[in-house]
From TrEMBL:
Organism in which the protein naturally occurs: Myroides guanonis
Molecular-function annotations in GO: ferric iron binding; ferrous iron binding; identical protein binding; oxidoreductase activity
GO cellular component: cytoplasm
CDD domains: Nonheme_Ferritin
Protein name (record): Ferritin
Major localization class: cytoplasm
EC number: 1.16.3.2
Length: 165
């Protein structure tokens, strides 16, 4: 059985993953309108992934005898003034998510809830991957700047980052 504190912390993470899904969805739609097909496909896929991260938490909380709280949808507020700004926000968001997962791991260990600790290891590994992807993309964008030709190539290149698992 989950403690009240751990349940509350896991429920908070449900909202964070849901918000992440919305952020990627917003970027997917924006890129689609701009004609960046590759970026859009990547963002739509990421948005789906984040929803899966959210669902995993919902199911885990309920499976452990708790009650998952389904949060309201939050409208993302992103700065689209440049590609660099946009992707920087994405990277910073993933760093924030990793920190939040680390905090959860800490609570699980403090409470000696090893089942939850074990459950969270999947997220720890996933965040390493997501942070690395966001960092690589940001590095590329920093190299390209707002060069149209570079962005065109990048739009094609980013398809390689779409996770298939
Ligand atoms: Fe990229 O946030 Fe989920 O874990």
């Amino acid at each position: 059985m989950l403690s009240i504190d751990l349940q509350a912390a896991l429920n908070k993470q449900i909202k964070i993953e849901g918000d992440s899904s919305q952020i990627y969805l917003e970027m997917a739609s924006w890129a689609e309108i701009q004609g960046f097909e590759g970026i859009s496909a990547f963002m739509y896929a990421q948005s789906d992934e984040e929803r899966q991260h959210m669902l995993r938490l919902v199911k885990y909380i309920n499976q452990r005898g708790g009650k998952a709280e389904i949060p309201a949808i939050t409208q993302p507020e992103l700065d689209h003034s440049s590609f660099k700004t946009l992707f920087k926000q994405l990277f910073e968001h993933e760093v924030f998510v990793s920190q939040s997962i680390n905090d959860l791991v800490h609570i699980a260990l403090t409470e000696r809830d090893y089942a939850t600790h074990n459950f969270l290891q999947w997220y720890v590994a996933e965040q390493i991957e997501e942070e690395a992807t966001a960092r690589t993309i940001l590095d590329k964008i920093n190299l390209i700047g707002d060069d149209k030709g570079g962005l065109y190539l990048f739009d094609n290149d980013i398809k390689n980052f779409i996770q298939t698992d």
